[in-house]
Specification:
The protein is built from 18 helices and 27 strands. It has 604 residues and is an alpha/beta fold. The chain folds into 3 domains: 240 residues, Aminohydrolase, N-terminal nucleophile (Ntn) domain (Glutamine Phosphoribosylpyrophosphate, subunit 1, domain 1, 4-Layer Sandwich), CATH 3.60.20.10; 197 residues, 3-Layer(aba) Sandwich (Rossmann fold); 132 residues, Rossmann fold. The strands form 5 sheets. It has an 8-stranded antiparallel β-sheet with strand order 3-2-4-1-10-9-11-15, with helices on one face. A 7-stranded antiparallel β-sheet has the order 5-6-7-8-12-13-14. The protein binds 6-O-phosphono-alpha-D-glucopyranose. The site of 6-O-phosphono-alpha-D-glucopyranose (G6P) has 16 residues, from helix 9.
Length: 604
C-alpha cells in the first residue's frame, strides 16, 4: 500500500528519500516519486510508473535539495501512470498522500471552476490545489485550512518551495511517524523507512498535524490546539529490515520463526503457577473472570490466526469464543456487550478495517485487547490493552512469522484466562511445557525444507487444490490455502473435512490434489475416513500429519512433530508456508510482492 517518506536537514534529501522508499517497497506499489526544494528555491519533481529503482535511477546531478518528500503509490483513483504518481504539484506546493479523499470529485469541480488545472486523475491532487490556494501566511495554516474542506482518510506530507524551512504532515486514518535525528528530521508512513536514521519516533494521532524543521517538530490538532508528544525509543535495527543471504523476505521470515516464537514467550511463562504473565492486558483478574464471551476480529492471515485463537480459548477456558473478519464485522452493526472481551489481531496495527472495527466497538462500550506486532501502531494505541507479538519486522506481503506469533500470543492469553478459571495446574503445566517446546519443533520442520520443496514442485503442476482439516485443523487448512493463493496464484479452497461430502466431493478428481491436515488427535479416525473418500475418487493427497497415514491413503506426507493437541495447529501451519513458498518459487513468481496485494491495507 502507499508509502510516504520525508526529510528536512542539511543533507541532500534525494538519496535518503530513495533509500526510505526502497524500505517501503515491501508494502506493494505501482509507481513512485520524489519532490525536493533545490538550493535556489526551485521545486524539483520526478515521478513515474514502475519500481523506485527504475523511476528514480537516472536523476541528474543537479536534482538535489532539502526539504524533500517521496511516495510509493498503490492505485485507487486513476490507473498506475506517470501523471497519477505522487507528488502532486500546484504552484510551489508539492503533496504526497496516502488514503482516500471521498469528496474529491466535488472539490475538483469547484477548484476547476475557479481556474485550477489538473494534471492527474487522482483524488490526492485536490489537496495540492487546496493548499496552494489557501489564504495563509504559514504553510501549516494553509494545510490546516485545506484539510477542513476534505472528507476522507489521509496521511500527507507537504513541502512548499516558497517556504522551504519546513515540512507539514497530517494524519487521519493513514499512519504518519516522525523520526528524530541530529539537527535533522524524518517522517514516514512506516517505521521501516526510518531504520538507521532515527532512534526516537513519534506517532501522529488522527486529526493531528506536525511541522518539521531541522531542529525539531511541533504538533497540533485540526482545531489549532497544540499537542504534547512523547518520543519513544524504537529498536530500529537496520539489519532486521535487510534480506541478508535469503532469497526473499518470505523465506527469511519463515526461518526466523523459532526466534520469533521464543521472543513472544520470553518472560511470559510463569513456572510457579503454570500460567502466563501478560503485563499489558490492563485487565485485572476480577474483570477477566467476568468475561462471558470472546470475540476476535482481524483480516486475512490475522483472521485465520484468530480462528485458531478462538479454538484455544474455548478449549482452555470453556468461554465461548469465535473469530470474524474485521472487514465484515464493522459493516453489520454488531451487538456489543459489556461482558464480551474483544480481541483485535493485526501484524501492522494499521489495517483500516480492523482499526475502524475497534473504534466502533469502543464507541459502543466494548473493551478491546490488541494482539499487534508493530509497537506504537494505530491499533496498538487504540486498544485498551494487549499483547505485543515481538515477531520483529515482517516485510513479505504473505504473513508467516507474525501469523505464528499471533497464534502463540493467543495460546498465552488462553492459558492466562484458563488458569484464573477452571484450568487445573497440571493442565496449565502441560500447555506451558508445550509452548516451550515450540521453537525447537519449528526448527525440526524447517530442517525438512528440501523435502517440502520437492512436494511443492509437484503441487505447482496443478491449477487448483483443496485444503481440508477438521476442527483444530480447519483454520490451518484455511491459512494454508490462503498462502498458496497469495503467492503461487494456484486456486486453493479450504473446507472442513466433514463438509467435503456435502458438496466439494463433486470436484475431487486426479487433476485436483488435496492437502489434508491430519493431526494425531481424537479426530484421527474421522480424518482417515475423509482421505479414503478422496482416494476412492482418484484424488491425489498430500497429508500434513503426525504419523504417516500409509500409501493407501496418501501419495505424499510431510511429518510434523507432535505437541499438545491444543497447540498442534501452530506447528501444522509451518510446513504449509514452505509449501506455498516453494510452489511459487517453482512457478517463478515475485514472492515478496504478489500481484494485486499490499502488505497493509490502510484504506477501506
Ligand atoms: C493484507 C495482507 C495480508 C494480511 C492482512 C492483515 O491483506 O495482504 O497478508 O494478513 O492484510 O494485515 P494485518 O497487518 O492487520 O495483520
Amino acid at each position: 500500500m502507499c508509502g510516504i517518506v520525508a526529510y528536512i536537514g542539511s543533507r541532500d534529501a534525494v538519496p535518503l528519500l530513495v533509500g526510505g522508499l526502497q524500505r517501503l517497497e515491501y508494502r506493494g506499489y505501482d509507481s513512485a516519486g520524489v519532490a525536493v526544494v533545490g538550493r535556489n528555491g526551485e521545486l524539483r519533481v520526478r515521478k513515474a510508473k514502475g519500481r523506485v529503482g527504475q523511476c528514480l535511477a537516472d536523476l541528474p546531478a543537479r536534482f538535489k535539495g532539502s526539504p524533500g518528500i517521496g511516495h510509493t503509490r498503490w492505485a485507487t483513483h486513476g490507473e498506475p501512470s506517470d501523471a497519477n504518481a505522487h507528488p502532486h504539484v500546484a504552484g510551489t506546493v508539492a503533496v504526497v498522500h496516502n488514503g482516500i479523499i471521498e469528496n474529491a470529485d466535488e472539490l475538483r469541480a469547484k477548484l476547476a471552476a475557479d481556474g485550477a488545472v489538473f494534471a492527474s486523475e487522482t483524488d490526492s491532487e485536490v489537496l495540492a490545489h487546496l493548499i496552494a490556494r489557501a489564504q495563509a501566511d504559514e504553510l501549516e495554516e494553509a494545510v490546516r485550512q485545506a484539510l477542513q474542506e476534505v472528507v476522507g482518510t489521509y496521511g500527507i506530507a507537504v513541502v512548499d518551495a516558497a517556504r522551504p524551512d519546513r515540512i507539514v504532515l497530517a494524519r487521519n486514518g493513514s499512519p504518519v511517524v516522525l523520526g528524530i535525528g541530529e539537527r535533522e528530521m524524518f517522517a514516514a508512513s512506516d517505521v521501516a523507512a526510518l531504520a538507521g536514521h532515527a532512534r526516537q519516533v513519534v506517532h501522529l494521532d488522527d486529526g493531528e498535524l506536525a511541522v518539521l524543521e531541522p531542529g525539531g517538530f511541533r504538533t497540533f490538532t485540526l482545531e489549532k490546539r497544540a499537542t504534547t508528544k512523547l518520543p519513544s525509543e524504537v529498536g530500529l535495527d537496520e539489519e532486521s529490515y535487510e534480506r541478508g543471504e535469503h532469497r526473499h523476505f518470505m523465506i527469511k521470515e519463515i526461518r526466523e520463526q523459532p526466534a520469533a516464537v521464543a521472543r513472544a514467550l520470553t518472560g511470559r511463562l510463569d513456572t510457579r503457577f503454570h500460567t502466563a504473565h501478560l503485563g499489558g492486558l490492563n485487565l485485572d483478574p476480577r474483570e477477566a473472570r467476568a468475561v462471558r464471551r470472546v470475540k476476535i476480529i482481524g483480516c486475512g492471515s490475522a483472521y485465520y490466526a484468530g480462528q485458531i485463537g478462538a479454538q484455544l480459548i474455548e478449549e482452555l477456558t470453556r468461554i465461548p469464543a469465535d473469530a470474524e473478519p474485521a472487514s465484515e464485522f464493522r459493516y453489520r452493526n454488531p451487538v456489543v456487550s459489556p461482558d464480551t472481551l474483544y480481541v483485535a489481531v493485526s501484524q501492522s496495527g494499521e489495517t483500516y478495517d480492523t482499526l475502524t472495527a475497534v473504534q466502533e466497538l469502543q464507541r459502543k462500550g466494548g473493551r478491546v485487547l490488541g494482539l499487534v506486532n508493530v509497537v506504537g501502531s494505530a491499533i496498538a494505541r487504540q486498544c485498551d490493552g494487549g499483547i505485543y507479538l515481538h515477531a520483529g519486522p515482517e516485510q513479505s506481503v504473505a504473513s508467516t512469522k507474525a501469523y505464528t506469533s499471533m497464534t502463540v500470543a493467543f495460546a498465552l492469553l488462553a492459558l492466562y484466562l484458563g488458569r484464573i478459571r477452571d484450568l487445573s495446574p497440571d493442565a496449565g503445566r502441560r500447555i506451558a511445557n508445550g509452548l516451550k517446546a515450540l521453537p525447537g519443533q519449528i526448527e525440526r520442520i524447517l530442517a525438512q525444507e528440501d523435502r517440502i520443496k520437492e512436494v511443492a514442485g509437484a503441487l505447482a503442476e496443478y491449477r487448483s487444490a483443496f485444503f481440508v482439516g477438521r476442527v483444530r485443523g480447519y483454520p490451518v487448512a484455511r491459512e494454508g490455502a490462503q498462502k498458496l493463493k497469495e503467492i503461487s496464484y494456484i486456486h486453493a479452497e479450504a473446507y472442513p473435512g466433514s463438509e467435503l461430502k456435502h458438496g466439494p466431493l463433486a470436484l475431487i478428481c486426479p487433476e485436483r490434489p488435496t492437502v489434508a491436515i491430519v493431526p494425531d488427535d481424537e479426530l484421527l479416525a474421522k480424518n482417515l475416513t475423509t482421505l479414503g473418500e478422496i482416494r476412492a475418487r482418484h484424488g491425489r493427497i498430500l497429508a500434513v500429519a503426525h504419523t504417516a497415514p500409509g500409501p493407501a491413503l496418501a501419495d505424499d506426507v510431510i511429518l510434523v512433530p507432535k505437541n499438545e493437541p491444543e497447540l498442534d495447529p501452530i506447528l501444522l501451519s509451518v510446513p504449509l508456508q514452505l509449501l506455498a513458498y516453494h510452489a511459487a518459487l517453482a512457478l517463478g513468481h515475485d514472492i515478496d510482492k504478489p500481484r494485486n496485494l499490499a502488505k497493509s491495507v490502510t484504506v477501506e
